[in-house]
């Protein structure tokens, strides 16, 4: 850890119904420079985010809430604000994680998690959000067969129909689309999209690739190059 915490000055909304867990986690996050607000239910969390995200840098959302389904809360949060959401879930299966990402979550951690892992993910989503920029090269749009990627507006469409992507999904797709057919190493993708070299992000990369394939309904668009990384295979027009 550095002497100056990366979380210094960042407001974080912790959505957790267990007061003991929340107290312990709040203490850790506070020591690392975060200003923590605790919401005990989905409704409290939604109220805390009014108006326009209420200045929070990250939402840490436990899915096991007493009043509403955590996935439903995630979807409602995304409709209200672009604040990054990290899901905390006891479900380790890929389908559950993809479901959360489809609803707009930016990342996830699986219980039981290491505090260092959680901090790394918080820092990664906050750094990426703070540094979001259009892709280099001055192009305003990328056309790949039926897929159109609007860089300034961060909008993706397939055959003219808009596909809703999370920020990380868009960044991943835009990166690969810059150089169709070129293999991007996993380490390179993680560095460019997640702005971190932390090794544990590799699992998140796999889930985001799976989510992109499902949302675009083009499983062959992103090809896995075993032992190396991924490349985008440009479809026929």
TrEMBL record:
The keyword DNA-binding applies. The modification 4-aspartylphosphate is found at residue 62. Keywords: DNA-binding, Phosphoprotein, Transcription, Transcription regulation. InterPro entries: CheY-like_superfamily, OmpR/PhoB-type_DNA-bd, Sig_transdc_resp-reg_receiver, WalR-like, WH-like_DNA-bd_sf. It comes from the Bacteria. Residues 11-126 form the Response regulatory domain. Pfam families: Response_reg, Trans_reg_C. Residues 139-234 bind DNA. One of its GO terms (molecular function) is DNA binding. Residues 139-234 form the OmpR/PhoB-type domain. This is Sensory transduction protein RegX3. It comes from Streptomyces griseochromogenes. The lineage of its organism: Bacteria, Bacillati, Actinomycetota, Actinomycetes, Kitasatosporales.
């Amino acid at each position: 850890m550095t002497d100056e915490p990366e979380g210094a000055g960042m407001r974080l909304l912790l959505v957790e119904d267990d007061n003991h867990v929340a107290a312990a986690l709040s203490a850790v996050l506070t020591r690392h420079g975060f200003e923590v607000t605790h919401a005990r239910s989905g409704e409290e969390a939604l109220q805390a985010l009014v108006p326009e995200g209420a200045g929070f840098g990250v939402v840490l959302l436990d899915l096991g809430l007493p009043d509403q389904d955590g996935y439903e809360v995630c979807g409602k949060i995304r409709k209200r604000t672009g604040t990054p959401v990290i899901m905390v879930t006891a479900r380790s299966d890929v389908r559950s994680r993809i479901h959360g990402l489809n609803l707009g979550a930016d990342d996830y951690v699986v219980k039981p998690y290491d505090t260092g892992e959680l901090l790394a993910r918080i820092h990664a989503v906050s750094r990426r959000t703070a540094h979001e920029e259009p892709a280099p090269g001055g192009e305003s749009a990328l056309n790949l067969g039926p897929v159109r990627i609007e860089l300034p507006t961060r909008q993706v469409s397939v055959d003219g129909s808009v596909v809703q992507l999370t920020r990380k999904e868009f960044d991943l797709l835009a990166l690969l689309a810059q150089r169709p057919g070129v293999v991007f190493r996993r380490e390179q993708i993680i560095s460019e999209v997640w702005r971190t070299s932390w090794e544990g992000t590799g699992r998140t990369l796999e889930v985001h690739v799976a989510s992109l394939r499902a949302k675009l309904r083009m499983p062959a668009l992103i090809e896995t190059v075993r032992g190396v990384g991924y490349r985008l295979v440009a479809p026929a027009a």
